[in-house]
Amino acid sequence: MGPRIGVVTFPGSLDDHDALRAVRLSGAETVPLWHGSDSLDDVAAVILPGGFSYGDYLRCGAISRFAPVMSEVIRAAGAGMPVLGICNGFQILCEAKLLPGALIRNDVRTFVCRDQRLRVESVDTTWTSAFELGQEITIVLKNGEGGFVADAETVNRLEGEGQVVFRYLEGNPNGSFNDIAGVTNERGNVVGLMPHPEHNVDPLTGPSLDGLPFFASVLDFLAAVA
Ligand SMILES: NC(=O)CC[C@H](N)C(=O)O
């Protein structure tokens, strides 16, 4: 049995089961976690999945950020545990201040759903080490509030310190500053992105298998620290 990887379900989570399935396909042990729990159940890494937690009321992720489990996620992230936020999970990580910046309504003012081309801008994170630097990949994107924004100083710091992890290619779908699709914290253990790698792990559904390296990366990391 591989390492234990948890996926948190919030009220309104949508992609928790796909995230669990991707974890299982990668060879890790899946651990469903509940938003109201104050335990991470001895997991070695945790994923905050996509969806519409708390109905996106106030702002996406603004209520989930206060879920009891988030206190534990914040504590564990501070101790170096790998944390991946996918779409709504990325929004929650920004609201929780585990990642810099914020996600605002798409500039096109509509929900956007498409196969999105991306460039891998950093392989120095626990979730992207199995990619090649500069690799171009295709990952499903589907959100209404995916515009990444931050103050100029923060954007410059993210660019300068190599904390931009993914950039949109072939058109910016949501008005994100500098075409930023995903970022990491300084340590590289917390990563958030708007596209959905958990949907791109099975040749039957396609359009690529470019989600698999996320899970291979964290398994490599966990094997190295075990
Ligand atoms: N796919 C998702 O996780 C969607 C996130 C959020 N509900 C939004 O529309 O932006």
TrEMBL record:
It is found in: Cytoplasm. It catalyses: N(2)-formyl-N(1)-(5-phospho-beta-D-ribosyl)glycinamide + L-glutamine + ATP + H2O = 2-formamido-N(1)-(5-O-phospho-beta-D-ribosyl)acetamidine + L-glutamate + ADP + phosphate + H(+); L-glutamine + H2O = L-glutamate + NH4(+). Pfam families: GATase_5 (PF13507). GO terms for molecular function: phosphoribosylformylglycinamidine synthase activity. Keywords: ATP-binding, Cytoplasm, Glutamine amidotransferase, Hydrolase, Ligase, Nucleotide-binding, Purine biosynthesis. Gene3D superfamilies: 3.40.50.880. The active site is at residues 87, 196, 198. The keyword Glycoprotein does not apply. Pathway: Purine metabolism; IMP biosynthesis via de novo pathway; 5-amino-1-(5-phospho-D-ribosyl)imidazole from N(2)-formyl-N(1)-(5-phospho-D-ribosyl)glycinamide: step 1/2. Its EC number is 6.3.5.3, 3.5.1.2. HAMAP family: PurQ. Part of the phosphoribosylformylglycinamidine synthase complex involved in the purines biosynthetic pathway. Catalyzes the ATP-dependent conversion of formylglycinamide ribonucleotide (FGAR) and glutamine to yield formylglycinamidine ribonucleotide (FGAM) and glutamate. The FGAM synthase complex is composed of three subunits. PurQ produces an ammonia molecule by converting glutamine to glutamate. PurL transfers the ammonia molecule to FGAR to form FGAM in an ATP-dependent manner. Part of the FGAM synthase complex composed of 1 PurL, 1 PurQ and 2 PurS subunits. This is Phosphoribosylformylglycinamidine synthase subunit PurQ. It comes from Microlunatus panaciterrae.
